[in-house]
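ok so I'm stuck.
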Amino acid sequence: MNKHPGIIGTKLGTTQLFLEDGTMVSCTVIQGGCRVVGKRTQDRDGYDALILGIGERKAKHTTKALRTSFEKVGQKPPRVVREMRTSAEHAAGFEIGQDVKLEEMFEEGQLVDVQSQSKGRGFTGVVRRYNMAGATSSHGAHEWTRHGGSIGTTTTPGRVLKGKKMPGQHGNKTKSVLNQKVVKIIPEKQLMLIDGSVPGAPSAIVRVCGAVKKSGGRPKK
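replied:
not stuck anymore, here's the structure
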């Protein structure tokens, strides 16, 4: 489990950035602006975590139970709430209601892991879903061009094997990309530019943490 410091933000889209040596880098722009709306502690909950929220939720769209829980800590219900597992020492450095600044959590050159919900593409066939080649269009074949072919077996085992690639729901799943480089941080606008692509459509909520396979992904001093 990734317990490195992280934030939740909003994916704004993609752009390109020219480095000092003239190299062009394709980047994804992440908008920060989350705040601490609660905490989990080892004594009370069995683990340590920060509860982060972003945006504001209308009162008519908020259940009474959720509204009451935030009123107890003096916070307005956020539009999106996520828990970020972390160490007790890191959680102790934040107070409820405090804004989480990008420049305090990350630095340029650091490697991060980004998680988001991929674009939903509905019910699709095997050609689009799994890049299958389909069948030939010649020699009298018809109505078979984009089919996946046989899905059966012989008498033994006499059933369709689990995991067979077939048409179905495409996308709309939680996806993670690892070891993405933080190219630039713009503190005054709370923007972060990450090298490469990030799952999800524009305005999607993303979770950004220090790279779990790179000891937090901090650049070497």
